[in-house]
Design a protein that fits this description.
Keywords: Acyltransferase, Transferase. By secondary structure, this protein is of the alpha+beta class. Helices cover about 35% and strands about 25% of the residues. The protein has one domain: Gcn5-related N-acetyltransferase (GNAT) (Aminopeptidase, 3-Layer(aba) Sandwich). It is globular and about 40 Å long.
């Protein structure tokens, strides 16, 4: 399913206390609690700790956690993190609620976060990991220009690593044949 013609693209904003109720609701969805909170059924206290952790990450200059919004509805979360504010690399992680998957919204949101990493944090490299078997997540990264890290395809680990350099992100990407033909119209 592609984005609906009337559907606006998602927007991101720093995760804060104003998102607490929606974040708690979002985290109750199957699979998202494990991604967001490392365990099932987070409490409101868990949500507040996550928001405090996001604010600490932001304050320390190490990254940020973003609410992904469609209109005013919280549909997911993206995290941008680096081990030190002096490192030139950061890792992006993301999760989108099931009803909003398969519509290009994760790709758009992660793209916004990557732009933020290069512009506001000044990083030169953004990395990401996903389960080797999670093809939709791999496609999100590949559409944005991420490439697998050296040797990632050969290792038996359950996760596969990706990276995107600032230099490579600024290069225009070739579009698929299908999108070229559909946008070019009849000749």
């Amino acid at each position: 399913m592609r984005p609906l013609p009337h559907e606006r693209p998602p927007r991101i904003e720093p995760l804060g206390p104003e998102h607490s109720m929606a974040l708690h609701r979002l985290a109750q969805a199957p699979g998202l609690a494990d991604v967001l909170f490392d365990g099932p059924a987070p409490t409101y206290d868990d949500v507040w700790r996550a928001i405090e952790s996001a604010e600490e990450l932001r304050t320390n200059g190490r990254g940020d956690v973003f609410a992904v919004l469609l209109g005013e509805e919280l549909i997911g979360v993206c995290r941008l993190d680096r081990d030190s504010p002096w490192l030139a690399a950061a890792e992006v992680g993301y999760c989108i609620d099931e009803p909003f998957r398969g519509r290009g919204l994760a790709t758009a949101a992660v793209g916004l976060v990557v732009e933020q990493a290069f512009a506001a944090l000044g990083v030169e490299l953004v990395t990401a990991r996903c389960l080797r078997t999670h093809l939709p997540s791999r496609r999100v990264l590949e559409k944005l220009g991420f490439v697998t890290t050296h040797g990632a395809e050969e290792t038996p680990a359950p996760f596969i690593g990706f990276e995107l350099s600032k230099r490579d992100a600024s290069r225009p990407r070739l579009t698929s044949t299908a999108s070229r033909t559909s946008s070019s119209g009849p000749k």
